[in-house]
């Protein structure tokens, strides 16, 4: 009887061990599954979530402008460092101010008579769509690229020409609106670096031009020259009509 009991206990222990083994295997499988799922989740996060935190550097393009640059909305005119808009409707002072505030502005404050003259002249004339007004002239900053001659031809077909640069204010305006791209301008340099504008006037060298090529363009550092057949964006200029 004792031997049978021993045999039975051995049998029970054998059964107990067999019963426990599947549980141990199941735990191992759960641990392995958790590790695999965790690894997959981490990879998905790395592939999808991580780039979002660094989205701006990855999608940065040459033609984006710095956030602190002044770009007036379409239909507004830039005078010095301010944007002006003239309403076509009559309102009380309070309603007019409320309307300006809705556009994140205020009723105009003029700092000089010249600013008043420019504001009223600019509202009497207008520029075509996609052109920007500045000091009674209209400017077009191309989105496409072309060589110097084809760029000038494009301007001429729009009753304009590649832009000249007459003042420091105009230079600052052009550099501000061209963003980070190079743009052809209406200046051709000669062998002795004398230079001539597209309207035939002699360049008086009031700003420096880098390089020893013929056709001039504008970049972040100012004006430079390149071979005329290279392709860049361009800037057209014409008077307001």
TrEMBL record:
Organism: Odobenus rosmarus divergens
InterPro entries for this protein: C-type_lectin-like, C-type_lectin-like/link_sf, C-type_lectin/matrix_domain, CTDL_fold, NKR-like_CTLD
Main location as per UniProt: membrane
Pfam families from the UniProt entry: Lectin_C (PF00059)
Record membrane topology: Single-pass type II membrane protein
SUPFAM superfamilies on file: C-type lectin-like
Gene Ontology MF: a single term: carbohydrate binding
UniProt protein name: C-type lectin domain family 2 member B
Transmembrane stretches, start-end: 29-50
Compartments where found: Cell membrane
Keywords: Lectin, Membrane, Transmembrane, Transmembrane helix
C-type lectin domain: residues covered: 134-237
GO CC entries: plasma membrane
Domain of life per record: Eukaryota
